[in-house]
Every structure is written in structure tokens, then in C-alpha cells.
């Protein structure tokens, strides 16, 4: 029988998240999670009484207030969501309403074209150069909005503040979103440009630098006009995106700045040590300011290494795109885990 209703179904090619293998004795370096536990503040809260019977505060005030204090902003400059994926999806829906194409790099977070397709937003990908760097002049043309991560994913390459400001200067008529999922691992945030540019939205997450990927908290910082527009869309979609537990856990984690800095610095230190050892083994890597490195080796095939590592219960991320298929994205874990990764590589190279 012909299913006439099939034509009414939205057809999308979904984003493919990294594998979440089961088991405990794994070295899981495939989805850029933090290897350290969240701040002990979070645990203390989990042992208290909760008000799960009631709906959570739709304005997410406790979390928004703490974010305002932490980042020196006012509450009307902050929007929160269920991970930065939720915040970014809302931002695509809210800010990219033009008929002109939005612009983003061709090698970048692979969710951008999925959202653009889902919301029927026209887009044009801009080629990164030979060294995977964004080319700023490509973002001078007419557009319906701009988005890019800084540092970029999956390369880890950071652009300096002058680069971001240059893009903003050339794009006063559209909204520019800087996705700072990995900014806390050695980058300088574009937050300081908010005073000067009303069309800038900075998006960050608790998933990486605050070790809370499982709790799902993301946030956007920007001009109150942008934040109100985001909230209007959110309230037209689902008033209670943030659950009670995440509101409290997020605000408690923010209060522990010392722990946050300590764990970020540990990851930065581990990254630099790991990069030095990988170079000794003949790998080349993009200069990373994120909690992962993007590595390639002239003599060894990335897919084969990826499969061999998996057999040893070491998980990396591998992408099939033409320009990235020779690379592995390796999340920075604990020092001990990275040592095991280096021994795995040494063994692998001896055998092949
Ligand atoms: N932006 C970039 C560049 C990412 O790599 C990720 C992680 N997949 C996200 C946003 C979303 O992270 P989350 O939803 O956990 O905040």
C-alpha cells in the first residue's frame, strides 16, 4: 500500500555522536570528556534533599545568577540550555532567519550543517587553508550570519582575539556566534568584545572544562536583546529545558573556581607532555589549545590505528571526510591514560 503520509515526514541526516562504549576498564578518549570528577561541591549537593516533585524555575535564576557573578555580566546577558548543543540549536533557530546563506568553516563541528538543514537555513561552507586555519577574508562577503568554534574542532586550532574582532568589524549586519566549547584549555574568550559588538554571541559549556558532560549545561552570553530573543524562542518551545538538579549542580560547580583552574591546568600540562611524546614518535599535530589533539602519521594509516586501539580498549575518534581521514582526534585524559596511549603506539609501531 502506498504510504502517502511519507511525504509529510521531515527527512534529515542526523548528527552522529561519538561512541559511548560500555565497561569500566576502557581508556575513553573519543568524545572530549574531562577525565577528572566534577568539583566536590557537586557531590555535596547530590546528598541534600531535592525538590524534584515541583517544576524547576523556568528562568533558571540560580544558575544564571551564578554565571553572571562568575563572568562579570548582568543576568539579562545570559541564556542557559541543555548543553551547548541545545543553546546552539536555539541560536540557529533564533538568529539565522535571513534568506542569505550563513557561513561556517568546511572542517568544523559537524552539527552545524545538520541544524542548518533541520531548520532550512541556507549555508555556505568556507574552506579552511592547508594548515586547517580559518581564512578571515572568506567571511567578509554578504551573509545571513556566521558561526565557528574557537578553538576549532576537530583541529584544536585557536584564533586570536584580533581575528574574532576583524570578523565582527566586517559583519556588523549579521549575528556572529563564537562557539567556545574548548576555550578554557588555553584560549582567550571573546567575552571582552561583548561591550563593543552587540551582534556577538559567545557560547560555552560545562561539558568539557567543568567535567559535567552528563548533566548537560550550556550557556550563551551576549547583548540583552539577543538573550531576550533566545528566551522568547525557548519559551515557545519548552519552558523547562533545565531540570532542577542541573540548575543546582551547575551553580555549585561554578563556585569552585580553584578546582576548575586546577583541573584545566592539569589537562593543559598533560596535553603539552603528550604532544611532545607524539612528535618523538613521528606524529604531526595541529597546534591545539583544546582538550584534544588532531594527529596524523605519514607511515601509519589512521583507520588501522583506530581499529587496533579499539581492540586494546583505547577509544579515539576518526572521521571519514576526505581531508581528515588520515587523522585521529585524541582527547586528553589523565597522565596515566596518556602514558598508556604512548605505550600502545610504541607497541603498534614495533609490530607493523
Ligand atoms: N561545540 C563543539 C565545537 C563541540 O565539539 C561540542 C561537543 N560535541 C559541542 C559544541 C556540544 O557540547 P555540549 O552539548 O556537551 O555542551
Biggest β-sheet: count, sense, barrel?
5 strands, mixed
Question: Gap between N and C termini, in Å?
Answer: 55 Å
**CATH class term of the largest domain:** Alpha Beta
Return the average pLDDT rounded to an integer: 96
Number of domains: 2
Radius of gyration: 21 Å
Note the run of SSEs as H and E: EHHEHEHEEHEEEHHHEEHEEH
CATH architecture of the largest domain: 3-Layer(aba) Sandwich
Q: Strand percentage, roughly?
A: 5-15%
Offer a concise description of the structure.
The chain has 352 residues and is of the alpha/beta class. Helices cover 35% and strands 14% of the residues. Helix 4 links the parallel strand 3 and strand 4 (123-126).
List keywords for this structure.
globular, Aspartate Aminotransferase, domain 1, 352 residues, alpha/beta, binds 4'-deoxy-4'-aminopyridoxal-5'-phosphate, 14% strand, 2 domains, 5-stranded mixed beta sheet, Aspartate Aminotransferase, domain 2
Walk me through the topology.
Layout lengths: L26 E2 L11 H7 L14 H11 L6 E4 L1 H13 L6 E4 L6 H7 L4 E4 L19 E4 L11 H9 L6 E4 L20 E6 L12 E5 L1 H12 L8 H12 L1 H24 L2 E3 L6 E6 L4 H10 L2 E2 L11 E5 L3 H17 L1
Parallel strand pairs: 1-11, 3-4, 5-6, 6-7
Antiparallel strand pairs: 2-8, 7-8, 9-10, 10-12
Helix pairs in contact: 1-7, 2-7, 3-6, 8-10
Bound molecules: 4'-deoxy-4'-aminopyridoxal-5'-phosphate (PMP).
4'-deoxy-4'-aminopyridoxal-5'-phosphate binds next to α3.
Describe this structure in words.
- It is built from ten helices and twelve strands.
- The chain is α/β, with parallel strands linked by helices and 352 residues long.
- The chain folds into two domains: 20-37 and 258-351, Aspartate Aminotransferase, domain 1 (Alpha-Beta Complex), CATH 3.90.1150.10; 40-255, Type I PLP-dependent aspartate aminotransferase-like (Major domain) (Aspartate Aminotransferase, domain 2), CATH 3.40.640.
- A five-stranded mixed beta sheet has the order 2-8-7-6-5, sandwiched between helices.
- Helix 1 packs antiparallel against helix 7 (244-255) and helix 3 crosses helix 6.
- The structure holds 4'-deoxy-4'-aminopyridoxal-5'-phosphate (PMP).
